[in-house]
Amino acid sequence: MDHGGGSIVAAARYRRGMVFGGWVLRACCIAFVFIPGLAVRAGADAALPRIRPVDARAASLLARGSRESPTFAALVASLEQSDTIMHVQERPPDPRHPMGATRLVARAGGFRYLRISLEAGLPDESAIALLGHELHHAWEIARARWVVDEATLVRLYARIGRVHDHDGSTRADSSGARAAGAKVFAEVRRHAMASD
Q1: Cα atoms in the 13 Å half-sphere on the side-chain side of 30
Q2: Structural domain includes residue 1
Q3: Which of 58, 77, 96, 154 is most buried (CB neighbours < 10 A)?
Q4: 134, 30 in Cβ contact below 8 A?
Q5: Total number of domains in the chain
Q6: Letter string b/e over residues 38-72, b meaning 16 or more CB atoms within 10 A of that residue's CB
Q7: What is the pTM assigned to this prediction?
Q8: Residue range(s) defining the domain that contains residue 190
């Protein structure tokens, strides 16, 4: 994560040791970064999807999660009606970084732009659960239309979750996002077992 140049970070994480399908997700964080003055094309096409996968795996996870998990599908449907545009991508594994992150990167043209990144290499069911966790945070931000910068983001998570300092960055979490990730995982697993 880039902590310099005026960027602001707040992160939320799964509890250490949460297990999805036998995989222990280490300090899975979701980070929100607001970068003042970032140029984004104003007037983004409102007819385009709000959740935009950047790579093939992200597209696959988004499609499977929407098909197999009612909780995931409800988050997607709600976000598609919001003023947030989310780009979803995988990134190489790096033990110094959280397994999942959502960054609030800009506000322009009546939209707030978020970037959701997931660590590559996770089994599909775990990655979908992590994406469900991240999408729940995006939904929390989308509902709070007044969240437009670091100060308002911290206020949101002080109110709905927990905020603390970690290595010079502000981190936050909500029980809602943790519960959403766990519920998505259970729904995807149930679907997989029923298909066997």
Answers
A1: 31
A2: no
A3: 58
A4: yes
A5: 1
A6: eeeeeeeeeeeebbebeeebbeebbebbbebbebb
A7: 0.79
A8: 8-195
